[in-house]
Amino acid sequence: MRKEDLISDLLYLLMAGIVLLVGFLVITPAINNGLLGREMPENVLFIIVSLIVGIVLNVILMEVGHLIGAKIGGYTILSTNILGFNFYKDFSNNSAKGQLKFRFKSFNGLTGETIIEPKQEKSNPMFYVFFPLILFLLEFCVMYLVVMLAPKDADTHFETIQIIKYGLVISTTIAGCMVLYDYFPTKLDTMNDGYRLISLKKKINIEAFNSQLSMEAHEYKGDLNYEIKIFDEITDFTAKVNLEGAMRKFVEGNREEAISIIDKCLENKANVSRSTEKTLLLNKIYIVYLTRGTEAGNELYKALDEETKDAVKRCKTYEGIRVYLLYIGLSEKSKSEIKYSCNKIKKYYDRLTLGEIAKEMKLVSLALEKIIDFDPKLVDKETIKDICNGKEDNEIYKTLISKISDNSEKKEGEQNKKEEAEEQSKEDKKEE
After folding, report:
1. Which residue(s) pair with 81 in the sheet?
2. Diameter over CA atoms, the chain
3. Using 50, 70 and 90 to split pLDDT, how confident is the model at 312?
4. DSSP secondary structure string, 189-214?
5. Percent of the chain scored above 90 by pLDDT?
6. Model pTM score
7. What is the mean pLDDT of residues 76-89?
8. Which helix (H) or strand (E) holds 115?
């Protein structure tokens, strides 16, 4: 088990312990004293409603904290998504000024996602990262004051002050667990704010973090013609920016240079997290398949640890899908698995911005081109339609359909020539 996973599991246990402790020491006595209802169904209803309200309230406070911190730090808010409720700026009609809109949309993250753009290079992300913690401290102070001022006993069941008092206790407990996980000062199984706070003490990481936010903002607006800086010093943050630069160079045709950039990051893997290292490696394998051939790609793929291979086979990430697509296409020749992989990528499009979709669509199409060159029968129209997000008027769709036709004719011509040669060889033997 990796260090990040072990710490995460221990934190989950600690959070469960905190919840049980509050439950037994605070909520159970209140139930026994009849403060939260006369009957058990009333008690259960109160706890369920308090949990739901507490979760929703604290998720909102978490994202509001990010929004306030982003404004203070000098960032423009492009989109905020809270449990699927997405308020966003639409730049389709005006690339300079977005129009505020609302929609329901899936997201990348545990409870929400905020997309921001730095107004200048010196924009300070520390406020963006730290401000949700301030809102939690305010919530804790309110809860503490209510608990201290509210009467300990009640003459009747379900008095308003008792509902507020114990509802706040449950809500603040939930908030405490969320904050404990999000601000734990190390890298966990997700990128948490505690890890960001420690990392952003270094100037190079602030620069890289702002570069990444700027790239995401361009992609959000559908603009892929932005400049990407390649950093010499390798950290978790600079490695992610460098990877974007490597993939850009790959698409532009500088494939060996792309591998060189990724290799430099992997050579300094002690400076990056396990998840970043895995992302770098999978993108390298993808490029190697398309640049150095199936044998070289297979060699790297088979050297992956079993946990990573399992994640690749289950198509849990975009880079994993691309690697799996090439492996099962070029080595296993499985048309059904190719279809499965491309259907997965289509489902993930809902979480991406327009620019991210265009970028990922291009990368997947290059993998399909390689498979079509190998055997056009492995890819059909529905598979291509999936990676084109269901659109047949897409230029990538038209290109891949044309490539299937051309390769099918080529394969058929080669087969005919082979059969003619075999037939001629038989006739020559008869004459002899």
Report:
1. 86, 113
2. 115
3. very high
4. SS--HHHHHHHTTSHHHHHHHHHHHH
5. 61
6. 0.84
7. 92
8. strand 112-118
Owner of token pair 């979709």? 357
Q: How far is it, in rounded angstroms, from Cα 13 to Cα 136?
A: 21
Rg (CA), the chain: 27
Structure tokens at 248: 């850009």
CB-based contacts of 151-160 (< 8 A; 24+ apart in sequence): 153/33, 153/35, 154/34, 154/35, 157/34, 157/35, 157/36, 157/37, 157/38, 157/42, 158/36, 158/37, 158/42, 159/35
DSSP for 84-100 reads: TEEEEEE-SS-SSSPEE
Picking from 414, 342, 328, 406, the residue whose alpha carbon sits closest to that of residue 371 is 328
- Per-residue pLDDT tens digits for 8-48: 888 889 999 999 999 999 999 988 887 887 788 888 889 99
**Long-range contacts (CB closer than 8 Å, 24 or more residues apart) made by 409-418:** 411/375, 411/376
Q: How far apart are CA 325 and CA 342, in angstroms?
A: 8
Tokens standing for residue 266? 């992997």
**Sequence letter at residue 142:** V
Q: Tell me if 212 sits within 8 A of 218, measured CB to CB.
A: no
